[in-house]
Amino acid sequence: MRQCYRDLCCHQRKNLYRVQIKTGMKLIETIGLYDTGNRLYEPIRKKPVSIIGKELAMRLLEGEQEWGRRFRLIPYSSIGVENGLMKGFVADELVVFVNRYSFVYAHPVLAVAEQSFGKRDGYEIILHPDMI
Predict the structure, then answer these.
(1) How far apart are CA 29 and CA 19, in angstroms?
(2) Could you give the C-alpha distances from 76 to 105, 108, 110, in angstroms and in order?
(3) Residue pLDDT, tens place only, 106-115
(4) Which member of 14, 40, 58, 81 has the greatest number of CB atoms within 10 A?
(5) 26 CB-contact burial (10 Å; exposed 0-12 / middle 13-18 / buried 19+)
(6) Among 83, 103, 119, 81, which Cα is nearest to 20's?
(7) pTM of the predicted model as reported, rounded to 2 decimal places
(8) What percent of the chain has pLDDT over 70?
């Protein structure tokens, strides 16, 4: 039983990564959850979309002067929502740190979840599988 618990903890740690997001003059470091079930893409440029909670979005966009240029609507479907729209925005840069490597993405699209999730969940961003 102890072995299974240790394997589960190791597996969960493999899905959490250090992430930096830059928007304007703000650079915020947080933890991201790698989620193979996230299949969101921005409809015009077909860029992968990662999902952040409201609290992180407010910290990133506080004082932002160019909100209109950054704003996006992202269509999605999920259980109970057939044709939904999520509000989102384009950040300047997102960096995912995986062991000794870093993956840098210019102008990543971030959707803002209606429900809040935060550091108590162990992560503040759900990373798109194409980003690792």
Answers:
(1) 6
(2) 22, 17, 13
(3) 999 999 998 7
(4) 40
(5) middle
(6) 103
(7) 0.84
(8) 88
Both tokens of residue 88?
Answer: 């989102």
Amino acid letter, 86: M
Q: Report H helices in the chain.
A: 2-14, 54-61, 67-70
- Burial of residue 38 (number of CB atoms within 10 Å: 0-12, 13-18, 19+): buried
Q: Which tokens hold the place of 83? A: 């044709």
| CA-to-CA dists, residue 129 to 4, 25, 37, 75, angstroms | 26, 27, 8, 18
- Residue 113 DSSP code: P
Q: Which of 18, 86, 15 is nearest to 57 (CA)?
A: 86
Cβ atoms of residues 48 and 32 within 8 Å: no
pLDDT at 10 over 80: no
Please tell me which residue, 43 or 82, carries the higher pLDDT value.
Answer: 43
Residue 86 to residue 76: CA distance in whole angstroms = 7
Q: What is the pLDDT of residue 123?
A: 93
